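Lab channel / #folding
Pinned by the channel admin:
"Please post every new chain as: sequence first, then the C-alpha cells as a reply. Keep commentary short and put observations after the output so the thread stays searchable."

First post following the new format, from NK:
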Amino acid sequence: RAAIRTETNGGCSNLGLRGQEAASSIGTLVARLTRLHYARDACIALYSRCRALRSRLRRAAKTLRKFERDSTARAQDGIRALEDRCIRHLSILGAPDVPLKF
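Reply from TO:
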C-alpha cells in the first residue's frame, strides 16, 4: 500500500503538469477550430458567390447567343434586300436577267 500511495502522490503531481499541458492543448485546438470555422464560412460565402456568378454568366451567354441569332438573321435579311435592290436597278438599266452571286 505504501508503494501505491507513493505512485498515487507522484501521479497527482504529474497530473497537475499534465493538466496544464492539456489546457494548453485544448486552447490550441479551440484556436484551430475557430480558424477552421472562419475558413469554412469564407469558403461557403465564396461558393455562394461563384454560383451566383455562374448563373449570371449562363444568362449572359444565353442573351449573347440570342443576340447573335437575331443579328445574323437581320444581316441576312439586309443582304437579301440589297441583292433585290441591285437586281431591280440592273433590270431598270436593261441588264440581262442573270442571277447574281454575292
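NK: DSSP finds one helix and no strands in the chain.
TO: also worth noting, The CA atoms of residues 50 and 56 lie 10 Å apart.
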